[in-house]
Design goal:
Layout lengths: L8 H16 L3 E3 L2 E3 L8 E5 L2 E6 L4 E5 L2 H18 L28
Antiparallel strand pairs: 1-2, 3-4, 4-5
């Protein structure tokens, strides 16, 4: 085992960042927990009244926020917590597409000349 003494918190932080870059690559440490890998997931957002709702179709999690950034951050947190309890080995990407529908307008009384 190798031990090292640090003279300051800054020196420790610098060494830790170098360790993360060299040894972890795409992996990272969050709250002293080693995360094995990162997954890129989809966030689908829509506005409901004064809130933004964010949903992750791969996992089924959802959250909300006062703005888009807050909604996405809340969705990330909710998804991480969900995956801690219910790990998924393989995530399938959803098939996203668009489609059109016709809308019908109700015509008020016709005016006869």
């Amino acid at each position: 085992m190798i031990t090292k003494t640090f003279n300051s918190q800054n020196q420790f932080s610098d060494e830790l960042m170098q360790f993360r870059e060299v040894f972890l690559g795409d992996n990272y440490i969050k709250n002293d927990v080693y995360i094995l890998n990162m997954k890129t997931l989809t966030a689908v957002l829509h506005k409901e009244e004064d809130m933004y709702v964010a949903e992750c179709p791969e996992v089924g999690t959802a959250s909300q926020g006062k703005n888009i950034e807050e909604a996405i951050n809340n969705l990330k947190e909710a998804t991480e917590l969900y995956l801690e309890e219910f790990p998924i080995k393989e995530l399938e990407k959803p098939i996203m597409t668009m489609f059109e529908v016709g809308t019908h307008a109700k015509i008020k009384e016709r005016i006869r000349a």
